[in-house]
Amino acid sequence: MCIAGFYLLAGRGYEVAAKVWLVAFSLWFYGFFSPSYLLIMVASIVINHVLVKMLRHFDEKSRKRAILITGVIINLALLGYFKYLDFAISNLDLIFGFDIPLREILLPLGISFFTFQQIGYLADVYQGEAKEVSFIDYALFVCFFPQLVAGPIVSQAEMMPQIGNISGRKPDAEKIGRGLSLFILGLSKKVLIADSLGRAVDAGYDIIPTLGGLDSFLVMLWYALQLYFDFSGYCDMAKGLAGMLGFELPVNFDSPYKAVDITDFWHRWHKTLTRFFTKYVYIPLGGSRRGEARTIVNVLIVYLLSGLWHGAGWNFVLWGALHGVAYAAVRTAHRHISTGDGDDTPAALLLRCVRRLITFLYVSFAWIYFRAESISQANELIRRMFTGSWKAVNYTLADRFADIDELWYIVKFSGLPGINFAFAHNLVMIIVTAAALVTVFAAPNAGQCSEKIRPRIVTAVALGVLGLWCVLSLSEVSTFLYFNF
Amino acid sequence: MTQEVKTGFKKYILILLLSGTILMTLCIAAVIMVDPFFHYHAPLEGFPYEVDNQLSQNPGMARHMDYDSVILGSSMTVNFDTRTFADELGLDAIKLPYSGAYPKDISNIMSVIFESHSDVDTVFLGIDVINYSSDVDQIKFPLPEYLYDDNYVNDISYVLNKDVLLNYVIKPVISPQPTDLATVYSSWWTDEYYNINYVLPNYLAEYESLSPRPEELPKEYFEEQICVNMKENILPYIEAHPDTRFVIFYPPYSILFWNDCINQNKLEATLDEYEVISRMLLEYDNCEIFFFADEEDIITDLNNYADYTHYHPRFNVWMVECFADGTDRTRDMDDVNAHIDHMREIATHYDYDLLLGQAR
User: What three-state secondary structure class fits B291?
Assistant: First the structure.
């Protein structure tokens, strides 16, 4: 309905009406998930637009700078109040022995995303990089529903030209077809893969004291896979939806677990966040222009902030630090050692595989702190990995794969006489894990698939069935992991 | 873009949407036709329905099945066989229990029952007094609201649901194992579990992890909340349906339950719960109370139990016989107080150390 209404208005040249239609739909979409916070987002858009107007109004650098700083503070204060107040209170209570009760404020959906997007916009206007736009264009830039709740964090430079040329936009069958395909692939990544793995991860974190070494390793592995399929699945859906409306969102995930080192990983994982931090934090801090030591400090600052952006807790800060340290180390190593990335000899290929594996294991290890409720819980899981038994998998974990409704049919029609369900649980666990690993290491990602799709009947039917399967599975689906970041 | 590619993608989109929509329609039609949760209609003749989900299937059964009596309560009622009700009382009963039911759970299902069967003859209700001091709106598990309301829009969660389709529509066709509604929801414990050697070690493991309450709870501690709960969740149905007989019973928990009460210093407060609830119920002519909690021979023999409260199914049969012949019926507060005094006598004089010592 949204897509049809948009093209109906845009195609007939009703540009403003088409934009109002999209903004209205986006606000309804946001209000549907988080009605109480709709006002906060609307207020945030209005205030930031006023600040943008003020930035354009004044010519003096000092005044513009003051407005920019005010804007950044307002946005961060909003984020701070909702996301970090309890974290600050609990630390004050701990350090100074205060007894300030936690506020337990519900985090507005997608606040980290739309706050950063608007800070970026203010900075671009300050730098003179953004053209003047109407309020409705600005509102659409911030609240465009496909990327509203979980990114990607789009820049004005890539969105404003697209918002500006809506008039006369007609439905493009290829864009809609590819967008629809990408949306279904993203949905299936989230619903069919991430949620299946998520059940086992949740079970694992619930029973850490009983986990063995292999169990803990598998829980670590599953979470790394769950997070990738979950977040990238969502971004695929966002990109697909936007594509159906004729918008091009940036690629946010470029097969990140194929990365050969941690710097490569951050050029592939949540790319728009990396871009944001690079442009608005790392470069203003001096980037790599002030010597090697200062560069390392800048990198560490960026990753500590990235950790905090992802969550209000010391475990997130530690997760950021783990990435920051590794990034700085690899970056420094790159300056002194040649990695031979262009080399195609068997030895070089093998080396790349080994580096890929090491990077994946390191990233997965760091995710433990990201998923755990506290540093001590993460430490306990890691301790069990190194001290527990590696001989068998805890049945509670394998059993979670039995929650896959299709299992009964697989066993029934597998043709394996005498197969029992306990064995089947383990088998499904192995198959799901192996398939997910092969997908992340060797298969093209969903974005590449949708780009290559040829409009054949068999593909259309397969995706129609896949889409339906996802819809049928939705009634038991958990919420998106990245909603609360 | 060439015209050919354009046409190709138009066809592609059409086929994708069409195939999804056709299959979706088939799924919806299959769920509505079979209606495994009986949300729209009574069971189809001869379909091997699998009934194992109290939260999802009870409201539909209440709404669309034929019956003249209902059995409500917690897991204390799951082992009733409705055939016994037919044999002993000549009633066509249906079981609609909710494990761990709070009064609000009972209220929810009673509202569905009386909406569709306002002339129901008898409601058998097992009351677990300890759950009646809960919050008025407390329910044991979140309800699938779409099966309890009349909103057709949210039925989408039912008609487009993989669980429903695979486990309750297709699976029974491939591998029919129809549920016997007379014994539906029966507990999984087989006879060998009803054994002191199984009960005691499990009980002790939990019992020893609890620290005793240091002070005795005041006798009237639960009274206020119980009154609110009864007035909000139970009595309105008794008042509104004077022609329906409400047979209320207090299940016979094992002596271990009473050991917990003593250990937690709440024996008098718990016994008072029986008194308060009974006093409120006896105000109504259409209410009958059966007091099984102090059945000494049953509750002091742990071979009758699978854990500290759940008794062997033969006592469900026995209770129905009592409903028929009036054994343990309390007709006034004197009867109730006599049972409470008896219970206090058993609970305070029982040699718990001797019993628990067997497993230590």
Answer: strand
Q: What are the chain A neighbours of B19 within 8 Å (beta carbons)? A: 460-461, 464-465
> Which CATH superfamily hosts domain B54-153+180-357?
SGNH hydrolase (3.40.50.1110)
Dig out the tokens for B23 from the structure: 């299959």
Q: Do B9 and A173 touch (CB under 8 A)?
A: yes
| Domain boundary assignment for chain A | 15-169, 175-260+339-484
**Three-state DSSP state, A74:** helix
Chain A CA closest to residue B18: A464
Residue A59: how many other CB atoms lie within 10 Å: 7
Task: Look up residue B302 and give its amino acid.
Answer: L
Q: What is the pLDDT of residue A422?
A: 66
Is any Cβ of chain A less than 8 angstroms from the Cβ of B141?
no
pLDDT, tens digit, for every residue of A262-288? Answer: 999 999 999 999 999 999 999 999 988
The structural domains of chain B, with segments of one domain joined by +, span 54-153+180-357
| Burial (0-12, 13-18, 19+ Cβ within 10 Å), A164 | middle
pTM over 0.90: no
Q: What is the pLDDT of residues A216-225, one digit of tens each?
A: 999 999 999 9
Is pLDDT of A341 > 90? no
- Could you list the active site residues of A? 310
The dihedral through the CA atoms of B123, B127, B132, B138 has a sign that is negative
Which of B9, B20, B161 is opposite residue A467, by nearest beta carbon?
B20
**Does residue A478 carry a pLDDT above 50?**
no
- Check: CB of residue B41 under 8 Å from CB of residue B64: yes
Paired residues of B249 in beta bridges: B126, B290
Chain B contact for A192 (CB, 8 A cutoff):
no
- Integer Cα distance of B81 and A258 in angstroms: 60
B174 interface with A at CB cutoff 8 Å? yes
- ipTM of the complex in this document: 0.85
DSSP lists the bridge partners of residue B288 as B247
Task: Return d(Cα A352, Cα B264) in angstroms, integer.
Answer: 64
Alpha carbon of B177: minimum distance to chain A alpha carbons (Å): 14
Partners of B247 in beta bridges: B124, B288
Write the CB contacts of A110 (distance below 8 Å, at least 6 apart in sequence).
A30, A148, A149, A150, A483
Residue A192: its chain B contacts at CB < 8 A? none
A458-470 as b/e: b if 16+ CB within 10 A: ebbbebbebbbbb
Residue type, B278: S
Chain CA centroid to CA B175, Å: 28
Q: H or E segment at B249? A: strand B245-250
Q: Cβ separation of A174 and B24 shorter than 8 Å?
A: no
